[in-house]
Design goal:
This protein is an all-alpha fold. Helix content is 69%, strand content 0%. It is built from 6 helices and no strands. Helix 1 packs across helix 2 and helix 2 packs parallel to helix 5. 24% of the residues are buried. The mean pLDDT is 80.
């Protein structure tokens, strides 16, 4: 997961806020079983770029931290409704299941 985190960091910037959101995004992708490689490959990387941008601008970081803490150790979860990337994560997870 560190390599992904480093990759996402490089796109989101090195500010503390960027790193905080990077950490949350990586954990959320893992928790919701999103195929990170597929998301990165989708539309020549545009899907991942958009996901990162949406995450970086999200005002729900504390809710995200709380949800991730409350669901620690779980996987195959539906993303929480407050997540602005929830639909994208659901779609990516469905594609992975269908494959």
């Amino acid at each position: 997961m560190n390599n992904l985190s480093d990759t996402v960091d490089s796109h989101m910037g090195n500010s503390y806020a960027g790193k905080s959101h990077t950490h949350l995004l990586v954990r959320m992708l893992d928790r919701c079983d999103v195929d990170i490689q597929q998301l990165t490959d989708d539309c020549l990387g545009q899907a991942m770029a958009e996901t990162m941008r949406i995450c970086a601008l999200c005002a729900n970081a504390q809710s995200c931290r709380s949800w991730l803490q409350a669901t620690a150790g779980e996987h195959h979860l539906h993303p929480p409704a407050f997540c602005p990337n929830a639909r994208r994560f659901e779609k990516a997870a469905r594609r992975m299941t269908a494959a």
